[in-house]
Write a structure and sequence with these properties.
disordered N terminus, single chain, 2 domains, mainly alpha, 300 residues
Length: 300
């Protein structure tokens, strides 16, 4: 997209932020209608009464969220199929993890924290950050207990469910952010899309490989990962619908929630796994992933 398109996105974002924070635009419904009005008029789309978009435009937005959400979540299925097809060198998986970690750090910085600070108040962003971190930490402990229980002699189905739940916990915040970015009327951030896609691949490859080694049938593994991808895609659509009808402060809280969950995931599992499998060059690859995603963050 050219410089004119980037300027238009910045102008719309600034106009939305001024309206959200103005004394006369205080309720969630008013702010949602104001954002729709600016977004659709900027795109040359006809808007109905009371600032509401006509139904066909709404359908197009949902379809867009569904399509991009499915594209991002497809890497879970692709990774699972690759894991079933052959064994992959741990070092390669570690380096892909490192690249994905860098890309996710960029997404947290530029597509979550920065955006949340722009559309809402700092205290709502901070509340969401804490809530996301605590929620992911608590649920991840439950998954960890289930995984240890499965390794001590439970059924293969329990082990597979625990692994899929771990990917689910990672995927929901990422896909939620994707839906929020679409609802903001700024297009899809290529940097965010790359971060989600790349970070999903090694996780799915490693998980499906371990599940297969434990004796789980290939058909059951495929069904499991298709289900996880479907839920993650639904999260994108749900985030789009929610963001289109709530206040800027709630949007900021959701951005913070996703950022908090992703940061805990990065430090607790993704970065340690990358270093353990990828070796001492993992740090350099992480910086490369950050640089690539940061460079693509302004592209939509």
């Amino acid at each position: 997209m050219g410089a004119g398109g980037a300027r238009n996105r910045r102008d719309r974002r600034e106009a939305i932020r001024r309206l959200w924070r103005s004394p006369g635009c205080c309720s969630g419904a008013q702010r949602g209608r104001a954002r729709d009005l600016i977004r659709f008029r900027s795109a040359g789309t006809v808007v109905g009464g009371h600032g509401r978009a006509l139904p066909p435009q709404r359908v197009l937005g949902v379809t867009e969220a569904l399509g991009w959400g499915a594209l991002a979540a497809s890497s879970l299925v692709i990774g699972a199929l690759l894991g079933l097809a052959r064994e992959w060198p741990p070092r390669l998986i570690g380096l892909v993890l490192a690249f994905g970690a860098g890309a996710l750090i960029s997404a947290v910085s530029f597509d979550l924290a920065q955006e949340g600070a722009q559309v809402g108040d700092a205290e709502f962003l901070a509340f969401g950050l804490a809530a996301g971190a605590i929620t992911y930490f608590a649920l991840n402990r439950v998954v960890g207990r289930r995984s240890r229980h499965a390794s001590d002699g439970a059924t293969d189905n329990n082990a597979g469910t625990a692994l899929a739940l771990g990917a689910f916990l990672d995927g929901i915040p990422e896909q939620t952010v994707l839906g929020l970015s679409i609802a903001a009327g700024e297009g899809v951030s290529v940097g965010l899309l790359v971060a989600i896609f790349v970070s999903n691949l090694p996780e799915a490859i490693g998980s499906s490989t371990e599940m297969r080694a434990a004796g789980t049938r290939a058909a059951a593994i495929r069904r499991l990962w298709f289900l996880v991808a479907l839920i993650c895609t639904a999260a994108t659509v749900a985030a789009y619908a929610i963001a289109d009808n709530v206040s800027g402060n709630l949007n900021a809280a959701v951005d913070g929630f996703a950022a908090g969950a992703l940061l805990v995931m990065l430090i607790d599992s993704m970065i340690p796994d990358a270093v353990r499998k990828g070796g001492d060059v993992s740090g350099l690859v992480t910086v490369l992933g950050f640089a690539v995603a940061a460079g693509l963050s302004s592209v939509s």
